[in-house]
Amino acid sequence: MKTIKIGMIGFGAVGSGVVNLFNNMTREIFERVGLSVELVKIAVRNKGKKRSQVFDKNKITEDAFSIVTDPEIDIVVEVMGGEEPAMALILKAISQGKHVVTANKHLLAMRGEEVYSAVESGEVELGFEAAVAGAIPIVRAIRSAFAGDRIDMIQGIVNGTGNYILSRMTSEGKPFNEILKDAQSLGYAESDPAFDIEGIDSAHKVAIMAALAFGTSVNFGSVFIEGITSITPDDISMAREFGLKIKLLATAKRCEGGIEARVHPAMIPQSHFLASVNGAYNAIEIICDNAAKNVLIGPGAGSGPTASAIAGDVIDIACKIARGGAGKTPPMLIPLELRSETKVKAISDMVFEYYLRFTVPDRPGILAKLAGALGEKGISIASMIQRGRQENEPVSVVLTTHSAAEADLDMALEQLKDTDICLAPVTKIRIQKDA
Amino acid sequence: MKTIKIGMIGFGAVGSGVVNLFNNMTREIFERVGLSVELVKIAVRNKGKKRSQVFDKNKITEDAFSIVTDPEIDIVVEVMGGEEPAMALILKAISQGKHVVTANKHLLAMRGEEVYSAVESGEVELGFEAAVAGAIPIVRAIRSAFAGDRIDMIQGIVNGTGNYILSRMTSEGKPFNEILKDAQSLGYAESDPAFDIEGIDSAHKVAIMAALAFGTSVNFGSVFIEGITSITPDDISMAREFGLKIKLLATAKRCEGGIEARVHPAMIPQSHFLASVNGAYNAIEIICDNAAKNVLIGPGAGSGPTASAIAGDVIDIACKIARGGAGKTPPMLIPLELRSETKVKAISDMVFEYYLRFTVPDRPGILAKLAGALGEKGISIASMIQRGRQENEPVSVVLTTHSAAEADLDMALEQLKDTDICLAPVTKIRIQKDA
Prior knowledge:
Helix content of chain A: 25-40%
Structural class of chain A: alpha/beta
Order of helices and strands of chain A: EHEEHEHEHEHEHHHHEHEEEEHEHEEEHE
Oligomer: homodimer
Largest sheet of chain A: 11 strands, mixed
Largest interface: A-B, 63 and 63 residues
Distance between the termini of chain A: 51 Å
CATH superfamily of the largest domain in chain A: NAD(P)-binding Rossmann-like Domain
């Protein structure tokens, strides 16, 4: 039996999870399947760094290119993250006929087309289950389980950090910055949390899922992205009054003339199952023409779950290497030359109901002016709430609208912006009652 | 491009779903993937029967064996159900080098070993995603996504009919028989509902999942099975008082010295996610050493979802036929010769907390006798509730116990059975607070 040799690039949290799994389960799992698989080399940035997992120092290198060019290595596991040098390393590995398993959502979202094309023409395997929502088997669900059906929508919560912060803001009523700081000290948010709280990480996953589900390339720049940094405890408690809850939703959806690919906070009914997914959990619903609604829930990140996803991909690829069939099926299922190019709809062309929070002077006639400006653009108001009056202080007025085109709403808000009735930027949150 | 030809056996609800999918999506889906796949022949019991789906009458036959021996056919889709003649047909198809896709949980639970062995030695593919919980991608999750991890437990609600009945009993407070009749008239339960309400259908799925997850054969006779027919509205409302809800749980679990494989009603905390899975939905949690808890939810049955699962398997196999690699990986992932035989633990050797409902005469000293009989076997009582006294009528006494060995409890109940204080069979429901 040929031993299948793995080289890994990166030995951070995820890399440590992979080493832990190989240290403790190699025999039990791979040999059980009738395979001999060995982790033979790891590339790191700093060889001297102390590590939580035991791994033979002689097999650790600071030269990542020595892994992707090592003729002994069959599968390269890339867990270093980021665009470069990960991209150069992966392309080099493919050019050397090596199969690749990666957890790098950033790279696949930004430059997936180059990777998929190299994988396809190089006739190697690409495993990327770990790149989307940890161990939740969403890549297999889209690429294989629901591949014979028509996927109409994929929607969910795919960023654990953002969901953790929103969940705590909701249960504790505390402001964003306070919870963020606490999340950072507890290790739930990184010291630079931008990707998580600004929706970029969720958008990476949307781009990858949309490309896979709809058989098209997705230009990352066309994904609409809005984060959670401007959500306040007031917005959350107002939502509660309406029977709604705020979640950072990631959506990839088939629509007339193209697809939607967007990430933004949304108010959804408290009775919707996504409303009860709290903490660092991820949840993704897949709506198909025949299979109807299926939902996958799990820890969307973390060393253990991500390592588990990587190990699943390694097993799949090792089986194919040992038994035949490796490199035969395109990474995106549909051969790139057969894919159709699909337009990503602009957010301005979409229609939602809206929650709008205005900060206005406390004097008569303000509501008439707000309603007038909205009415001029054909936007009608569904409800109005004003709370907490204090003499001579600005007050918050919350309006919800009936369905309106985002472009019309933005024009109305633009016109109100420079008047003396808008004392602060308007908070706009999309309401998805049929989420 | 070679056209991959499908022959189907059975044209009932699921078969109609498959035909519908082929009629409406063949071009869009298979051609998109770069495959040419055609449904060329269907075997039925009665050619004259009217059908909801259009299919060329010249391609319908009453001779199922003509499909499994047709040299033109590459993949046989078996949706007739039952043990025979399905088994003979599948074995014949395999012997002719045909790949098989089946939705037949009954067959795989009872005679899976024969099927897997024939598939493995015949070097063909077996797709059986449709056999467990409709389109929920549980087979792929176990066989591939979590294959590099150690699966510790699979637990869930895997029978939609049973869950529909229990859900309505819970929300409406009506007795089992009334809801069952209504479910039958609405098409949620079959005219012969035994497999669903007696837990057998769930047990079929447990047997298949346990064999796959734990790499062992599972003798169907060793799966513990208890249905929902003796659950009363009283039990449901008592559960509510304890903060619990009754669900028909299917469990496959790694334990000391073997595995657990069991189906029975259980009282679980109302806050557990399985408690909020209502109606005909299925939900399965998979707990792994590294991936922690992941959950899959979806419609566990029905023509559309089951057809979708079949189409996913057909795509996977067609890709392998067209591009290489078909028949190389064993159907159970682990080659049969490498599997270990694992003991299925007897229910009498397990430990639970229990809910016990006694029907006793309304006179002093009864509780002392019940407590005494239980105490003699080392079983201690956690709570006691008696409701609804009527002069000279038997009354219900409900006891809950602390953790106790099932064998001890059964002995205590056996001793009480023939005394004058048990006027009707005792209802025993396992409580799983840490479900």
